[in-house]
Design a protein that fits this description.
7% of the residues lie in helices and 38% in strands. By secondary structure, it is mainly beta.
């Protein structure tokens, strides 16, 4: 009888623990097999200046319809492709005017697919367009103070409310704006502690508006909730699973809460669950069909069906898929 009571008590504890986990939006939202892997599908583009070709593509984004936007940095333009990779349109040229680019460093699309945002490292600004490339507005300038200064803007993300977040790497902070460019505030400061940064670079926001930041020179990913409260971190310097090189530029999250991180110097992409548990990786250094050379950014469509990586030094986009 005592053994039965102990068994019942054990089952109740397990059930209660399961309820607690289920109610925690950061914990164990999906279960993956140990055999989850990233599989190569094909590549998009090659080096060139023609439509559908790239010169040092640095960034990319996928909208809610699966269309792909590539920041073709060397050609000073944005190129847009259909979900199957068909060229649709492009816009941009070299310069400082509206719709022109200098140091095009990132592109993103808001969750509803209504607006496209770009960051320029050399022009120190954000530009906002419609999905066809029509210029809407811009904001930002270089400096050492002020509401919307951007000493080194690197990546940009938009949450479900339309608020815009960007990493200011030299300022070791996240800058926050409304979608019209009105300054809201900052997140973070220089340091090694939780919620502090040493050269933040990549940023992504999940469906619950949790914020994921690649903290490059601290060799880690940091996670904040929708109220900017620090939640967790993972990573260290190295070449092993769950470790990162000195350059960790891009990050993305799919609808299953899998987190994809570009490990640039290690020429690979690593995949984690949203608590930081390592799942898989893909890539090796080289110029072959299934290799990467100094990749920069990553974007995913729904459920990891399409994973897109800017293989920057090879002037192409590599496309992967999650296999379970």
């Amino acid at each position: 009888m005592a053994g039965v009571k102990k068994s019942v008590t054990y089952l109740l504890i397990v059930a209660l623990f399961g309820i607690i986990i289920y109610q925690n939006p950061f914990c164990c939202t999906s279960v993956y097999s140990q055999e989850t892997e990233l599989k190569y599908i094909k590549q998009l583009g090659m080096k060139g200046i023609e439509k559908g070709r790239f010169t040092s593509p640095h960034s990319l984004a996928v909208d809610n319809l699966g269309n792909i936007y590539v920041g073709d940095t060397g050609n000073k333009r944005i190129q847009k492709f259909s979900p199957n990779g068909t060229f649709l349109t492009s816009w941009g040229s070299e310069g400082t005017g509206d719709g022109e680019f200098l140091g095009l460093h990132d592109v993103t699309v808001d969750p509803k697919g209504k607006f496209v945002y770009t960051i320029e490292l050399k022009n120190h600004r954000v530009q906002k367009f419609d999905p066809k490339g029509t210029f809407i507005t811009k904001w930002g300038f270089n400096g050492t103070g002020g509401r919307d200064f951007m000493r080194a803007p690197h990546q940009i993300a938009v949450n479900s409310l339309g608020k815009v977040f960007l990493t200011d790497s030299n300022g070791n902070q996240i800058l926050k704006f409304y979608d019209n460019g009105t300054f809201i505030g900052t997140l973070g400061s220089k340091g090694v502690g939780p919620g502090q940064f040493n050269t933040p670079h990549g940023i992504a926001i999940d469906a619950n508006d949790n914020i994921y930041v690649t903290d490059m020179k601290n060799y880690r990913v940091q996670v904040f909730d929708s109220k900017d409260t620090f939640v967790r971190q993972w990573g260290s310097l190295g070449t092993g699973s769950g470790q990162f090189s000195e350059t960790v530029p891009g990050i993305a999250i799919d609808s299953n809460n899998r987190v994809y991180v570009v490990d640039k110097i290690n020429s690979r992409v690593q995949m984690f669950d949203n608590t930081g548990n390592y799942l898989s990786s893909w890539g090796s250094d080289g110029k072959g069909a299934q290799q990467l050379h100094k990749p920069e950014d990553i974007a995913v469509n729904d459920e990891g069906v399409g994973i897109y990586i800017t293989d920057t030094r090879n002037s192409r986009v590599q496309i992967l898929q999650v296999i379970e």
